[in-house]
Amino acid sequence: MRFWRRQEGTETTESLVGDAKSLPSGEDTLVEAPEAGPAEEGAEERRGWFGRLRAGMARSSARLSQGINTIFTRRRLDDEALLELEELLISSDMGVGVAGEVAEALRKTRFNQEVSPEEVRAALADQVIRLVEPVMKPLRLDLTKKPFVILVVGVNGSGKTTTIAKLAKQYRDDGYKVVLAAGDTFRAAAVEQLQIWGERTGCPVVTRAEGADAAGLAYDALVQARDEGADILLIDTAGRLQNKANLMAELQKIVRVLKKVDPLAPHSVLLVLDATTGQNAHSQAEIFREMIGVTGIVMTKLDGTARGGVLVSLAEKYGIPIHAIGVGETADDLRAFEARAYARSLVGLEP
């Protein structure tokens, strides 16, 4: 299931993600999915998204499962065990608040009883589902606003450009007219990625000389997209947090000039976070929310870390909608965030 929905009047539809093509090296890379024959397609269908997600989150689930096994093998649920569990959850980047809630829920229901590691994992998954379900929301495309402007923000290296490439591919596969804006004008690799992706998908890419004013580029891109009757405009941005004041001024200027063309733009501000950064994702969410306001999150690279629990603490602390999670490099590895699938994958359980 895709992490976006088309909303036109009262009609809402959802679609499936297609395969990806290759991109050049740069901030990150979107690789080509291998062509599959009928038998392979059937096997992949049986494996399903949950299997892909669980495999992608193996590092996070192994860390939690090993810790829980160590704490709860042939042991009663006493104060010491609960304290050890809290410490394990905190070390897995779930945050102090979440760890405390999970421990308290177990205290109320199973205290001084012998519990198995499987029971603890199941209880943990239930608590995670409860905490993250409120932020499980798709990205809604309101195509009565044309072009629908998606401003993509995040630190350099988080996966912004690749996320834009995946979005462009799936939107074009569904027949939408898409324009891309290479707004990270200080990184030639990001511009090159979008240009090659634009060629492959038939999406015009608005670029300027290296170091050009990003706001001016965004303005021109919106005018061009509107004049060409595009459905969607995807705008890449810089993410140089080492100079926060300059970046804030740049992003705020982009928003101001977009509103000169469309007072409602940008219609979505998508924050891309890299799961491998762990608790640093919190500071990034805080900074970009302060800078520009964030309407939704995409969490990438969950397959490259044992810190997959950070998504839970983000949900609890900020309540920002989580549109999608990524566990691989192809377009099919970026899917709608589903609370149950994520929670049970996190603790190594079947759906």
Written description of the protein model:
By secondary structure, the protein is of the alpha/beta class. The chain has two domains: 4-8 and 16-33 and 136-346, P-loop containing nucleotide triphosphate hydrolases (Rossmann fold, 3-Layer(aba) Sandwich), CATH 3.40.50; 56-134, Four Helix Bundle (Hemerythrin (Met), subunit A) (Up-down Bundle). 48% of the residues lie in helices and 15% in strands. The chain has twelve helices and 13 strands. The chain has helices at 38-56, 58-72, 79-91, 96-110, 117-132, 160-173, 188-201, 214-227, 244-261, 280-292, 310-318, 339-346; strands at 4-8, 11-13, 75-76, 114-115, 139-142, 148-153, 178-181, 205-206, 232-235, 268-274, 296-300, 322-326, 334-336. The strands form three sheets. The protein has an eight-stranded mixed beta sheet, with helices on both faces. It has a three-stranded mixed beta sheet with strand order 2-1-5, with no helix packed on it. A two-stranded antiparallel ribbon has the order 3-4. The chain starts with a strand and ends in a 5-residue tail after the last helix.
